[in-house]
Design brief:
It is a single chain. By secondary structure, this protein is α/β, with parallel strands linked by helices. It folds into two domains: 7-126 and 215-320, Malonyl-Coenzyme A Acyl Carrier Protein, domain 2 (3-Layer(aba) Sandwich); 132-205, Malonyl-CoA ACP transacylase, ACP-binding (Alpha-Beta Plaits). It contains 14 helices and eight strands. The strands form two sheets. It has a four-stranded parallel sheet, sandwiched between helices. Strands 4-5-3-6 form a four-stranded antiparallel sheet, covered by helices on one side. α4 (61-82) packs parallel to α5, α4 (61-82) runs antiparallel to α6 (109-125) and α9 (221-229) runs antiparallel to α11 (256-266).
């Protein structure tokens, strides 16, 4: 039987970055300031200056990823310095999985920062500029298998299984129009078969610079595996068993080699966030989202679960004071 008041914390990924993120924690909490300083030392550039300024460079994948990771850990450490908050379980969406591993003391912060910066560089370089794209498919009762079958023959993959109502596809930009046409036809056909009258989809192109979590990332897997293997002895696999894996949807094993393979696979495989949510809900009664923005809250809401989002210091005070 599940113990009462078990808590889980989840962290969003790329796309949540924005100028000024985390500054209220930085200005008011020493532990948060020290986190930004630690990140700057590890990476060799001023992370706080990029996070708090108006430089468009923050939107480049190689900078966005370490900036988001730093901000989320700075927020978590700030909260833990003020309140008695010790999560039992951890999850993160895409890049957020690295934050979750750091938060669970399964991966050292400095090594994680260098890994995600390299991850961002490799992902950006995997395809020529302008050739990749991603789009959110939004409709009721989406089935990943049906989406994959509908896209068969197109150079596109299911990138994120976010909820029953949202799936993200990824791949060649010049195939997106054909994908939208096929998916709209799929919904019309489904409506005819079920007798439903309102079963159209929303097809929303995403503002990204590469086709993440698709077959086009396969070329960087071996290089990134070497990056992770370089600090494999510093991983704590026992703690990783409290963190959900985007690839399997369940919790990580306590095997270092397996953890690394899951992180390598994540680059070019679907983020099974829907299953991650279910795994966390089965373990924890209270779920918090910590990050610059709050995209995960709505995904939990879609399965009838309340997820309290903390994006600012004032929100943290409301949640824990």
């Amino acid at each position: 039987m599940m113990s009462k008041n078990k808590t889980a914390v989840v962290f969003p990924g790329q796309g949540t970055q924005k100028p000024g993120m985390g500054k209220d924690f930085y200005d008011n909490i020493r532990q948060s300031r020290e986190t930004y300083a630690e990140a700057s030392q590890a990476l060799g550039w001023d992370v706080a200056a990029l996070c708090f300024g108006d430089d468009e460079k923050i939107n480049l994948t190689e900078f966005a990823q370490p900036c988001i990771l730093t901000t989320e850990i700075a927020m978590l450490r700030g909260i833990q310095s003020l309140y008695k908050f010790t999560p039992d379980y951890f999850g993160g969406h895409s890049l957020g999985e690295y934050t979750a591993l750091v938060a669970a003391d399964a991966m050292p912060f400095s090594e994680a920062l260098c890994a995600v910066q390299t991850r961002g560089q490799l992902m950006q370089q995997a395809t020529p500029p302008g050739t990749g794209a991603m789009a959110a498919v939004i409709a009721q009762g989406l089935d990943p298998a049906v989406i994959r079958n509908t896209l068969d023959g197109l150079p596109l993959d299911v990138a994120n299984i976010n909820s029953a109502d949202q799936i993200v596809i990824s791949g060649q930009a010049d195939s997106m129009d054909a994908a939208e046409e096929r998916l709209q036809h799929m919904c019309v056909t489904t409506s005819d078969q079920t007798g439903q009258t309102d079963q159209s989809i929303r097809f929303v192109p995403l503002n990204v610079s590469a086709p993440f979590h698709s077959r086009f990332m396969n070329t960087i897997r071996d290089t990134f595996r070497d990056v992770l293997n370089a600090f494999s002895e510093k991983l704590n696999p026992e703690n990783a068993a409290r963190v959900t894996s985007n690839v399997t949807g369940g919790f990580h094993s306590n095997d270092t080699e397996n953890i690394i393979e899951q992180l390598v696979s994540q680059i070019s495989n679907s983020v099974n966030w829907r299953d991650n949510m279910q795994a966390l809900v089965e373990k924890a009664e209270l779920i918090y989202e910590i990050g610059p923005n709050r995209p995960l809250r709505n995904f939990f809401r879609s399965i009838g679960i309340t997820c309290q989002s903390i994006t600012t210091l004032s929100a943290a005070k409301r949640a824990f004071a």
